[in-house]
């Protein structure tokens, strides 16, 4: 990846945060904004680019997430096996890990499972509550965050009272000590770094994990 001198200097800042686990979601936001146009030109990391674009524009009218929402609506939420929405294409966990492994290696940032886990948690938190609407086609939807003790997920829905919720992305194999229940689809929060650990809290300051 070709970076100019200023970008290289900024990358050095983010590399230190990532290597030493000093980051939270606001640092990941800045990191994604730094590399966004570079990875767009390379066309190598489409899943990472999707979330980079999402974070830059919390109201989206195109992209992988919008296409998935539109497809589900156009197909009337029909399934192939009672579970999978026909032609609804989310992001596969294996592809996600592969893209991040490739990008971080290309940027000379040491890759390990903890780093991938925490980057993913930050990005899922950032994506929570993003909305999708295309004025021409009138398709609309919202993306929400969900999690359990060992996985974190992003789901899409039209946002109406009886709308179906469809899993767009699931990342498993992480250890989350969930402190309390939350209202799915209504919860908004942020990740913070506390005593070296990445934690998530809601807008009232109460910790989820």
In short:
This protein has 6 helices and 7 strands, in the order αααβαααββββββ.
Describe the structure.
- With 209 residues, this protein is an alpha+beta fold.
- It is 40% helix and 19% strand.
- The protein contains six helices and seven strands; from the N terminus they run H-H-H-E-H-H-H-E-E-E-E-E-E.
- The chain has helices spanning 5-19, 25-42, 46-56, 64-74, 93-106, 113-127, and strands spanning 59-60, 131-133, 140-147, 151-157, 166-172, 189-194, 197-202.
- The strands form two sheets. It has a five-stranded mixed beta sheet, with helices on one face.
- Helix 2 crosses helix 6 (113-127).
- It is globular.
- The chain starts with a helix and ends in a 7-residue tail after the last strand.
- The relative contact order is 0.14.
- The mean pLDDT is 89.
Unreliable residue stretches: none
Overall average residue pLDDT: 89
- Specify the overall morphology: globular
Derived from helix and strand composition plus strand pairing, the structural class reads: alpha+beta
Question: What's the main sheet like?
Answer: 5 strands, mixed
Radius of gyration: 17 Å
Pattern of helices and strands: HHHEHHHEEEEEE
Total beta strand runs: 7
Determine the number of helices (DSSP H or I, runs of at least 4 residues).
Answer: 6
Spatial strand order of the main sheet: 1-2-3-4-5
Separation of the first and last Cα atoms? 36 Å
Helix content: 40-55%
Percent range for β-strand residues = 15-25%
